[in-house]
Each structure stands twice: as structure tokens, then as C-alpha cells.
Specification:
Two copies of one chain form a homodimer. By secondary structure, chain A is of the alpha/beta class. The first copy, chain A, has ten helices and twelve strands. In chain A, strands 3-2-1-4-7 form a five-stranded mixed β-sheet. A five-stranded mixed β-sheet of chain A has the order 10-9-8-11-12, sandwiched between helices.
Chain lengths: 323, 323
């Protein structure tokens, strides 16, 4: 008696420091996961050589896992042409990643069908399939970190926009008179609630309250001070949660979603930001639109990228086989 | 030789003053159109008696039009449960319209399949099918009037939100410190760019410039003064177009749509607001997201409601027959 080998998927999540990768199944279970430096400051060929060495290694795990790798999913920073699996233009944190033809290169080398998407979309997909928003149709995801990333799922599908340039939720302005953003706009929520924005505000508050401003501020330090009840820290977090609440109220009035998932380093804090954000959101949003909306902390943490890339590949692979 | 009778659809558009109605075909051509007072200040039964008298009359036109009415589409103010064809709660301009069971009543009386949707959704659908955004997949529609209504089409389908309470684009805040809105939020675009907001600003500017403030300000008067080059009027329109540009930049960063359609009384002005709005939008939105977005004036004018209701019925009728 022979049994068909289990279908396995490679998921890769490229970042400015590391590339995380995993082998997983259709259900998003990770059977093997690791990371290595992405060498993002080097040439495109060097980055691809890192990617190739990873895939080469992962393919050797198939047998041990009693499975067969049938497709690759890949999350990348930047705007990604989902249809062709390649970058559209450049992305700030990876110097030589302009127009990188990820699908083209991987399919040519491995003969495995490959799907590529923006990293925030991939994380949103992971949370919607097997994370905080599993089973939900209309999902908004925000990732709070150095910047603020966004992902939108409509009827269970990632919404990418007409030129794959939508879901830039960090660049929704909540005040047209607000601080100038790197993107050229004013008052983007990224200027109020990213990690750097949060620390800038905390530094200001410490200064105003004649407290010493540590040379190296970090969100870790900030949250430690919140836990110990320091006024400047508590006020900072309250203010940032209010800004996020204003942004979420807009997203609720626009999308009337089932769930808003908040992830990223900031959201991983021990303190519960979600309740504070939700309270302000409910004060500001239209009652019929907000009534059933849940605000949830992301569940997949720093595995969301790998899991999402696997789900991306698994979904697309299944759809392709149905045709 | 017999020919099958042409399939015709009734489209109705209920408003606070009038109910507009029409008979049209699958392509959204109106073969007959009229309006009569909606008697919106009276009881729900009275309003339904107006609706019944209209349908009774329209059914008598079938023969003359060599067709057969096969379905009814209906646009109503308020949140509409699309699945059940009835109001969710109340709507401000029609006193006794709470929970009105439009589909239930019409299907029971006429045996014709009936679909009901929010009026702004219906107008967006009309523009996306046969108006300014025809053939486009991802469409945002704004209707500037006493309030600001919104409609969203994703991949050619109306997006309604998880509880049919989404697309409230007039209640996207562009300044969390802005003026208080009727909805309870602050800085909603409706407070900056609806007809009353525009006239409030114009009155202020006239006052500041020591000019007489007419007792009855109207957008008609305002636009007349713009055409004659009055500084206060020109400044008012420039400022309002900038606010709309800020709002559109947000919608572009979120949706990266194909087209944004702007309709409603304000947009019907002879002067070209679209260019001014588009200029500010392009300054503020992310370049990859805005590059191909078109801002267009709605084309269907005050027929959009009837045409959209017909398209709503025609689409749903066709989909139902395919099952």
C-alpha cells in the first residue's frame, strides 16, 4: 500500500535584516522554520544567492518530513506585482531590490510554482487564515513597527488595489495639518503611532516633565516604564492609543470589517493596548459600523510572514489545480 | 414567428422629497422615467402606498414597451440589509422608515423579485456600470450634497461591509481636532465639503472681507460668484477642493482605485472642481497608488438613482438565473 506524499509549501519572508523561512502544510502548520541574514545591503544577485541557498536546503528536508514541496510563497517589502511575482520599483530598506523578478528567478531555477506578495499583505493573510481573524471575511490588519504597514481582506481575499499599491494604511492622514511624513503627505498615522513616533513623543514628555531622557530610547524601555506607572510613559501610550483609535474609526466607517488585527513589535508589548485603542475607536466611529467590530492583537507574532507566505502559496496552488 | 418579450426592470430611488422611478433594460437604458412626492413626513404605510401606486402604474407600461417587467430594484436612504432587502434601523430624512421591509412588502404584493440597497451604493453602481466609471473594477464614489455619501466597488461589486454599514466615506475624518460632526466624530470630511459646510465657509469669508452676506446663501449663488471672479467665492471653492483632495489622497492610499467619481448637486456646478481636487490629491497621495487614478465627475446626474436601482435588479436577476 502506498500513500500519496503530503503536499508541503515553502514560505519566505524577506526583511531588511533577516530572511525568515519555513516549510509548512496547507493548514499553515510550520514543520520546520529558521532564519538567516538577508544581506539586504548587498547586490540583488547576492540576495538571490541567499534565497537559493535557503531553498536548496529546504528541499533536502522533504524526505524527512514525508512530504513533497509543491509551491513557494514569498513575502517582500515594497509594492509587488502579484500577477507577475515581481517588485514594482524600489523599496527603502533593501538597496538593490528594484524590480526584483522573484517569481521568474525561482520558477526558472526550481520549476516550482511561486507566488509573491507584499509583506504586510502576507501577514494580514496569515492572521485571517489561521491567526486572530481566522474564519472572518472582512479583515483589516495594521503592523506597528518602524513604519505602519497595512493589509486588507475583502470576502476572505487580499485586496491589493488596481496597481497593487493599495492598503497603505500607515499613510492614511488623520490630520491634514499634522507633521510632515516621509511620504510627502501630512499627518499620516505613521507619524503618530509608529515606534519612532511613539518614542519621539515619549522623549518630549520626559523633557517637559524635567526627567532625564535616556540616550537610547526603546519601546521596550517605554513599556517597562508604563508597567512601573511612570506618568510620562503612561501618557505617551494613552495618546498613541487615541491616535490609533481615530485611525481605526476611519477604517471602521469605510470598511465596517469583522476584525481589525494589530501586530508588529509595538503590539507585542505586555501591556494591553487593544482595549485603549478600541475604546477611542468606539467613541468616534458610526455606531452601526462599529457595533460588531473586534480589535484583536495579532496572534502569529514574528512567524506571521512565514505562515502567510505558505498560505499564499497553498491558496494559489489549490486554486490553480481547480481550473 | 414569436419573439421573446424584452426583459425590463423597475428602478426606484426614494428620497426625502421625491421618489424617482423608471423602467429600464439590462443595459441601464431608461425607457420611461418620472418622479412624484415621496410623502416622507408621513407614516410608513403612506409611503408604501405611494410606492405601490407607482409600481401599479409602471406595470401598465409593459405592453406599450413590448417588454415584461421581471424584477424591481430599489435605492433607499439609510443602512440597508441587502440580503433581506430591508432597512436596518432608522434614517434621518424619512421619519417613519425604521426597519422598513421593502423587499418583503413588494415581493408579497407583486411576486416580482426585489433587491434593495443603500442609495449611495446604488448611485455608485450606476456610475460603475454605465456612467463615469463604466468598465472599471475598483471604483470609489462620493456624492456631495447636504451630506456626503459614499460607495465602494471592489472588482466590480458593491462593497457593503460586514453589517451593511460600510462605505460611509463622508464620515472619514481628515482632522481629529476638526469641527464636531453630527455623527459624534470630529473633522469628518462632511464637515468640510458638504453643501452646508461650503456655504458656512463662504459666509465666513464674506463676513471677513466686509461684504454683505446674503440671507439665502446657495451653492448656485456661490458658483455664480466664482464665475464672476469674486475673491471670497473663489477662495471658498479652492479651500473646499483642497479638503476633498486630502480626503481623496487617503482613499487612494487605501484603495489604489481605478476611478474616483464625484457626484451630487455640488459636483454639477459649471465650474470644474475636479481638476482642483485632483491636483491636491496627487500632491498628497503615494505616487505608486495615485499614478493611474482618475477623478471624474459623475455622468448620470439625477438619474443615477433610478439607473443604479435598475442595474442592481438586473445584475441580481441575471446572477439568480445562472444558479
Amino acid at each position: 500500500m502506498t500513500t500519496a506524499k503530503k503536499e508541503l509549501f515553502i514560505g519566505m519572508d524577506l526583511g531588511g535584516s533577516f530572511i525568515k523561512y519555513a516549510i509548512g502544510d496547507r493548514q499553515g502548520n510550520l514543520l520546520y522554520a529558521d532564519k538567516r541574514p538577508s544581506r539586504a545591503d548587498q547586490s540583488q544577485d547576492t540576495i538571490f544567492s541567499v534565497i537559493y541557498s535557503i531553498v536548496d536546503d529546504l528541499l533536502m528536508h522533504q524526505e524527512r518530513l514525508h512530504g513533497q514541496i509543491v509551491a513557494i510563497g514569498f513575502g517582500s517589502p515594497g509594492s509587488v506585482d502579484f500577477e507577475h511575482g515581481r517588485l514594482i520599483g524600489a523599496t527603502p530598506n533593501i538597496n538593490d531590490w528594484t524590480d526584483a523578478d522573484i517569481r521568474g528567478r525561482l520558477e526558472a531555477r526550481y520549476g516550482l510554482p511561486t507566488w509573491v506578495d507584499n509583506d504586510a499583505n502576507v501577514m494580514a493573510l496569515a492572521e485571517a487564515r489561521v491567526g486572530a481573524a481566522r474564519g472572518k471575511a472582512n479583515v483589516i490588519a495594521l503592523t506597528l513597527g518602524t513604519g505602519i504597514g497595512g493589509g486588507i481582506l475583502i470576502a476572505g481575499e487580499v485586496y491589493r488595489g488596481s496597481d497593487y499599491a493599495g492598503a497603505e494604511l500607515g499613510h492614511m492622514s488623520i490630520n491634514f495639518l499634522g507633521p510632515k511624513c516621509n511620504c510627502g503627505n501630512f499627518g499620516c498615522i505613521e507619524q503618530y503611532a509608529s515606534a519612532p513616533a511613539m518614542l519621539r513623543l515619549y522623549g518630549q514628555k520626559l523633557h517637559e516633565q524635567n526627567l532625564p531622557v535616556p540616550v537610547e530610547l526603546s519601546t521596550f524601555l517605554l513599556f517597562e516604564q508604563v508597567a512601573s506607572g511612570q506618568a510620562a510613559a503612561v501618557e505617551t501610550v494613552q495618546e498613541v492609543c487615541a491616535y490609533l483609535g481615530y485611525a481605526l474609526a476611519n477604517l471602521v466607517n469605510i470598511f465596517n470589517p469583522d476584525v481589525i488585527v494589530i501586530g508588529g513589535g509595538v503590539a507585542d508589548a505586555d501591556i494591553d493596548l487593544m482595549q485603549q485603542i478600541e475604546k477611542v475607536m468606539k467613541q468616534r466611529a458610526l455606531p452601526p459600523a462599529v457595533r460588531q467590530v473586534q480589535v484583536k492583537r495579532a496572534e502569529l507574532g514574528n512567524r506571521a510572514g512565514q505562515v502567510g507566505a505558505i498560505m499564499l502559496a497553498a491558496d494559489a496552488y489549490a486554486a490553480q489545480r481547480q481550473v
